[in-house]
Design a protein that fits this description.
Blueprint: H1 5-18, E1 20-23, E2 26-29, H2 30-33, H3 36-46, H4 51-61, E3 63-66, E4 71-74, H5 82-91
Antiparallel strand pairs: 1-2, 3-4
Helix pairs in contact: 1-3, 1-5, 3-4, 4-5
């Protein structure tokens, strides 16, 4: 399953407001960090595998630039474990 452009924008909007990076007690929502579009695109690529796999692969697939781009790490290393469940919940309607 591939999302049409309207569905992809809707998914990006949901991700922007509900998924966040977490560093210590600081939370940065992906919309504010400029990462919601990249995560929505990665999710779209993996939707055919179901919500669980799509969420995990998408978090691994998005590379976050640290220190002006000198270092890149997977988004999965910057999120709390509960955010995986949150993304699965967001993706569920798109996988039906």
């Amino acid at each position: 399953m591939t999302l049409n452009p309207h569905q992809l924008r809707d998914l990006e909007s949901l991700i922007a407001d509900r998924i966040c990076l977490q560093i210590e007690n600081w939370r940065l929502y992906l919309g504010d960090a400029g990462l919601s579009e990249a995560l929505a695109i990665e999710c779209n690529i993996h939707l055919k595998h179901g919500t669980n796999i799509a969420a995990r692969k998408a978090f691994e697939g998005v590379q976050v630039k640290i220190g002006g781009g000198n270092i890149k790490i997977p988004l999965s290393r910057l999120i709390a474990s509960g955010q995986i469940s949150e993304l699965e919940e967001i993706l569920d309607p798109y996988c039906r």
